[in-house]
Amino acid sequence: MSDFTLHNEATRAVDFKPLKVNSTAFNNDGMIPVAFTCDGSNISPPLDIDHIPEEAKCLVLIVDDPDASVGTWVHWIVWNIPVTHHIKENQVHGIKGMNDFQQYDYSGPCPPSGTHHYFYKVYALDALLNLPANTRKPQLEKEMSKHIIAFGELVGLYKRDQ
After folding, report:
1. Which of 32, 34, 63, 121 could form a disulfide with 153 if both were Cys (CB 3.0 to 4.6 A apart)?
2. Which domain holds residue 30?
């Protein structure tokens, strides 16, 4: 689990329901195909989400890399995603926040060395969030913490050819 997920008392961890997050592009703990990285087309992979609670009002997607030498590196944050069981390749509807590349779009895996783990984290919330588009991960996590009703993640690995 990440530095935020499920460890903060305010997140009501005991109330979380598990989401099942999969991708047709890669398996959990499997290698992420080049197309979804900086060495390829740098597009977001498709995601399938199951076990979304009926009371969910929206989804949040956070993609980050805890193996970065500077600490967890944020590749993408999107909130107020309409409840869906399928996020298509390179297509997500919601509000995109600022990642650590200073961009609003998906920035795929691009590790400087070694194999890194990329966490595709999906949260189901019981409310929409009112946040400005320049929001970063800490502000998003703070605002959504009291609204999380379900959580799931898919972990992909990537190592660049050196």
Report:
1. 121
2. 9-158
Q: Residue 122: give its domain's CATH number.
A: 3.90.280.10
Burial of residue 15 (CB within 10 Å: 0-12, 13-18, 19+) is: exposed
10 Å Cβ neighbour count for 12?
14
Q: How is residue 128 written in tokens?
A: 């929409």
Q: Are 68 and 99 in contact (CB under 8 A)?
A: no
CA distance 32 to 55: 32
Supply 68's token pair: 């970065």
pTM for this prediction:
0.91
| 117 in any annotated domain | yes
| CA separation, residue 148 to residues 53, 78, 125 (Å) | 11, 15, 5
- Residues whose CB falls within 8 Å of the CB of residue 77, separated by 6 or more in sequence, listed in order: 60, 61, 62, 63, 96, 97, 98, 99, 135, 136, 137, 140
Q: Is residue 4 part of a domain?
A: no
Q: What distances in angstroms separate CA 10 from CA 4, 6, 123, one per listed residue?
A: 10, 9, 15
What does the pLDDT look like over 40-81, one tens digit per residue? 999 999 999 999 999 999 999 999 999 999 999 999 999 999
Domain total in the chain: 1
